[in-house]
Amino acid sequence: xxxxxxxxxxxxxxxxxxxxxxxxxxxxxxxxxxxxxxxxxxxxxxxxxxxxxxxxxxxxxxxxxxxxxxxxxxxxxxxxxxxxxxxxxxxxxxxxxxxxxxxxxx
Length: 106
Hints:
0% strand; globular
């Protein structure tokens, strides 16, 4: 089955919406994204991609609710940001696989 960019974007949005639900239950998990960014930036210095710093600024300057709102959006900017999401590690393997399996049937 051929995967279009839209299909991939929709699946990524579903993952982010699941992350939003998990963050609402456990806001301290936002630190996972900060830790990922810190590690990735340190590993890639001095050539870390600008999008990593953009994510860091978002996490450092926006309210928790604004971050959750951003993760749930489906506009050009959030699709771009989603391609470099620092939120890996928040969903369990089982949670991710549930979403992946759902999208395999689409």
